[in-house]
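Practice problem 4.
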């Protein structure tokens, strides 16, 4: 059985600015009088200009860390919805808990079945994953010969792909006895949250799966996603570039990747995916 390894994640985009820093703030131009210019001196910026730049920097810092963040897809677990090399902007406010005032001002929502979610990997919260929310609290999930049933109803899933005809006893008929490594969260799920042959999603968790069902490290193998691990949801693909996984997982831009960009930027950029919105697919059952 072919599974992606624990690099089945989204990676902060190395081409984007450091998410902890403003995107790009030019140095403030210092007003210089003719006399000072002749003397090679620059006047100190007036207090108002300093205050303006301080506010600008704070706003950019707030926007790039609190509202949206750039990520890149390095693996194929969400194909063909999201491709290796898709660069995403992720809405970090969509699923944020609503405060007494902010709930009236910002479009908060809870995670719905069919949402694509970005979250901290439960096995290692330093890693970030992207999957589809298949079950919310109270839902009953089972898989029979690759087909997902939720609350007893077979799902129509136009977004999913199967790249293997082989039926795996655990992956494709779930829940059942594991035939490969499962993490403690999955073992707990199988022991404590299976009723009448179905996984029952407990409170404050999500059952998540990749759209590339035959090659996705997901809730079948590591269990539920705690609600507090969810970062947000993808908004838009702002750039898509056909690059290998190793280049995309590199936290810095390697020499080979720079050369590849220089030689093939126009031919390997997937122009049809540029500014493509990322949507969930919703069913009520």
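Answer key:
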């Amino acid at each position: 059985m072919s599974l992606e390894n624990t690099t089945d994640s989204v990676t902060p985009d190395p081409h984007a600015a450091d998410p902890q820093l403003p995107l790009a703030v030019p140095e403030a131009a210092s007003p210089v009088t003719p006399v000072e210019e002749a003397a090679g001196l620059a006047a100190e910026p007036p207090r108002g200009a300093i205050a303006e730049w301080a506010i600008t920097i704070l706003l950019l810092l707030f926007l790039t860390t609190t509202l949206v963040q750039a990520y890149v897809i390095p693996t194929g677990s969400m194909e063909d919805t999201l491709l290796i090399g898709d660069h995403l902007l992720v809405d970090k406010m969509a699923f944020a808990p609503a405060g007494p005032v902010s709930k009236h001002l910002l479009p908060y929502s809870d995670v719905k079945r069919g949402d694509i979610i970005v979250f901290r990997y439960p096995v290692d919260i330093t890693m970030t994953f992207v999957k589809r929310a298949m079950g919310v609290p109270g839902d009953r999930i089972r898989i029979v010969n690759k087909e997902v049933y939720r609350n007893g109803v077979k799902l129509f899933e136009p977004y999913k792909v199967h790249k293997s005809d082989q039926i795996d006893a655990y992956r494709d008929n779930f829940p059942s006895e594991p035939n490969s490594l499962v993490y403690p969260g999955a073992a707990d799920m199988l022991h404590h949250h299976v009723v009448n042959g179905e996984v029952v999603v407990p409170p404050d968790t999500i059952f998540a799966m990749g759209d590339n069902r035959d090659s996705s490290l997901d809730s079948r193998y590591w269990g539920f996603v705690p609600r507090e691990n969810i970062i947000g949801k993808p908004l838009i693909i702002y750039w898509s570039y056909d690059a290998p996984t190793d280049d995309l997982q590199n936290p810095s831009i390697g020499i080979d990747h720079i050369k590849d960009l220089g030689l093939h930027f126009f031919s390997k950029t997937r122009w049809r995916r540029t500014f493509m919105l990322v949507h969930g697919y919703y069913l009520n059952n």
